[in-house]
Amino acid sequence: MTLPLVLILVSLSIAAEPCTPAPQGASDLIIIKKSWKRTRIDPYINASADLTQNAGFGRGGSIDPNAPSAPPEIPPARTRPRGKPSDRYTYELKVKNGGSKTIVEIGWDYVFTNAGGKESTHHRFVDKLRLKPGKERTLSRYTSQPPSRTVSAADPNPILSEEAVIVYIKYNDGSRWETQSL
Length: 182
Fold this sequence. Notes:
mainly beta; four-stranded antiparallel sheet; three-stranded antiparallel sheet
């Protein structure tokens, strides 16, 4: 009598184990690489470069070899342009279309989380494109918003984890895929 009872209990414990179904509705878009970088934009440097690049050149963009050897005329210096230097943050995502349909639009997030797993900030981007099956593309967007908008006095250089998330995909046949987690 003990053996049948043990067999019944073993069969019940096997049946009670949760089975994990295969993920359904996964995106056809494969993220190959993600990155971000900060670029400093200084309006004064950019304006000065424009002036010096064109100094001494004629309309055609080259110096006239038959012109007298007088020094080239340099236009008067401009005053410093208005505006302060600013930062631009560029977020890039290299993706591959692993599906059978042509993709015409991608909505994606670049998410930063702190060491405790709490979301620090995220940036949402939309790219309209034509990405055929099996092809790769680098999506690149910029914003003036940094990866983290708040800085703790206790930890001025926090370690942030970054993740790229595909939010939705539109296909050329009018169909649409959306993530279920948002």
